[in-house]
Structures are given as C-alpha cells and as structure tokens.
Write a structure and sequence with these properties.
Pfam families: Fungal_trans_2. By secondary structure, the chain is mainly alpha-helical. Helices cover 66% and strands 0% of the residues.
Length: 339
C-alpha cells in the first residue's frame, strides 16, 4: 500500500493525499515489522521476513527518501547474520539473499568508504570473489532482475573493496603493497577483456527478441559503468579522459528506453546505477539530460532525486574541477541509493 501510494503521489502531480497515505502505511509496516523482530507476535519464516525488510527499502526508493535506506539495509544484514555461513538453501532463499547483497553493494559504491589495509593474498582474494559467481550460486537473479551479469556484479564489489584498501594507503601516504597493485591490474584486465558472449548468461528463448535486446544493452551499460567506476576510483582517471566510456554507457541506456517505447507495453523502470555513475563523470551532458528527463515518466522518487543530485554534482565539478563526484557526495553528506 505504501509503495503504491508513493508511486501515485509521483505520477499524479504530487497529490498530497497519496503522500499522506504512503507515510501512514509505511509507519504501520515498520511498526508491524518491529513487533515481529522483537518476537511480540508469532515468528514468520525467514523468507517472509526478508521480503518484508526488502519492501521497506522499496518504499524508500519509490518515495525518494534519503532517511532510512541504510538503516533497513543494515537491518537486513543483521537479520541474515546467523545464516551467513549456510550453503544449502533453497533457490528462493538464495535469490532473496542475492537481492539483499546487491542492494547493499550499490549503497556502498556511493557511500563514504571505510579505509582498510590490504591483509589478504591474491589467491584468497580471488577465491572470495569467485565464490560470488560459482555455478551453484547462479540463479540468474542478477540478469533477470537487474540486467547485469553476475561477473560484472562481482567486479563492482571488487572495485569497491579495492578502493577502500587503496584509500587506506593514499590517506596514510604510504607505499601500496605490490599484491594490492597486482589485484587492481588484474581486475582492470578482466574488465577490458569482458564480452557478453564470454560471460555466463541465461537463455532468453521464451522471452522474445525485444527482451533479449534490452538485456544486451543493459548488460553493456553495466559493464561500461563498472569500467568508468574502476578507471575513476582505482586508476584516478579524471572526467575529461572518460568521455568515450561515458558516451558508451549513455548510448546503451538510451537504446533500452528506445526499444521499450516502441515494443514494450508494460514498461518497467531501469535500475539507474549505470546512468548515475556515468552521469557523475559526464562532460557531454546533453545525452544524460535527455535520459534523466525521459525516465521521470516512471514516477519513481529515487530517479527524480538522483537526477537532482547529478545536477548538483555537475555544478560543483564545474566550479571545482579538481574535485571528484565521490568527494562532492561526501563533503555535502549526500546519501543516495542508485537503484
């Protein structure tokens, strides 16, 4: 009810009645969830509770709220804690766990990082990240839900982890361990050599040509944005040297919307992370203005707010060219979940 009310609020000229209804039902949902977690009512099964927790994040995305998505993601992580080492779980549970982990990862990519020293060998590092894409873990949740391949999702996690390690040594102005440098180099090589045909993707035989074309463009946009993220955060490449990479992401994101406008009756909103990351590094902003204005049609508060943040970042970077988009977010304490 809350999610639907906030959606109607966005679609119908910010009708205050829908907004009030959304707030009321969000509070009821939160109170009910807290009662369950405090064991004041009979315990529901793990999947039901996890769906309820994820729904609280969805409410925030629909409203565009910056208040509580980190709280809910942390709550999900705490709830999953006792099961962290479990391997034998159902497909439905694995899919919910994957969705939770991916949303948490997207939040990390735009958060102030916690610098940490490099304390692992390259071998254990690769085992850690390879576990994300083993055959047993592949439910194709990434592909069908987010339009990203599991390998690119794992690469984004690796970029985020490596960035936190690099920041530790950059801030300390100390030498960077050679194993860490090799891990950065190896990740860059894998991103440069990635192709969709070499990745493990599901069959779209029963879904039609348009859906496969949308997935192809989405997956290439995710890869392009991951490459921009890597070059900017790991290699320190500035916006003026990312023009080609940013333009590639824009072309794929625009292509997705063009296909949907021609052939897809019930259009679903895109996950906006590729657009947000690439937009933040954009000097040629016209394609991105076109894309952000077009996707306002979906009536999702988070998309509207992200475009506002992107515009703030453009203004700040025009005024302070030496400052990167992450630095702007952190300095201004801007919280964003690009989902």
């Amino acid at each position: 009810m809350s999610t639907s009310a906030f959606h109607l609020h966005q679609c119908y000229n910010s009708n205050s009645e829908y907004h009030h209804l959304g707030i009321t039902h969000r509070q009821l949902a939160l109170e009910s969830l807290q009662m369950v977690l405090r064991n004041e009512v009979p315990l529901f099964d793990y999947k039901t509770l996890l769906v309820a927790l994820l729904s609280m994040v969805t409410i925030g995305v629909m409203e565009g709220s910056i208040i509580d998505f980190r709280v809910h993601l942390q709550g999900i992580s705490n709830f999953q804690g006792p099961r962290r080492k479990w391997q034998l779980i159902s497909g439905d549970t694995r899919q919910l766990n994957t969705q939770s982990a991916f949303l948490n990862l997207l939040a990390r990519t735009t958060s102030y990082c916690t610098p940490s020293p490099w304390v692992t060998s390259r071998e254990s590092w690769h085992r850690k990240h390879d576990n994300l894409t083993t055959k047993d873990n592949r439910s194709y949740c990434y592909e069908f839900t987010y339009g990203i391949t599991a390998d690119i999702a794992a690469a984004i996690q690796e970029i985020t982890d490596l960035y936190e390690c690099l920041e530790f040594y950059r801030q300390a102005q100390g030498p960077i361990p050679d194993d860490l440098l090799e891990a950065c180099e190896d990740l860059g090589d894998r991103l440069l050599s990635w192709t969709l045909t070499s990745d493990k993707v599901p069959s779209f035989n029963d879904r039609g040509r348009d859906e496969f074309d949308i997935f192809k463009h989405h997956s290439h946009a995710w890869h392009g944005a991951a490459l921009v993220f890597y070059l900017n955060c790991i290699q320190g490449v500035k916006a003026q040297d990312l023009i080609e990479e940013v333009a590639t992401v824009a072309s794929h994101m625009l292509a997705v919307e063009e296909i949907k406008s021609r052939h897809v009756a019930n259009q679903m909103a895109p996950i906006s992370w590729p657009a947000f990351i690439a937009s933040c590094c954009a000097l040629d902003r016209e394609p991105w203005e076109t894309w952000w204005l077009d996707v306002q049609k979906y009536g999702i508060g988070s998309i509207r707010r992200q475009y506002s943040i992107v515009q703030e970042i453009w203004s700040e970077m025009d005024t302070h060219p030496s400052e990167g988009w992450l630095q702007v977010l952190h300095r201004r304490n801007i919280q964003v979940l690009a989902a």
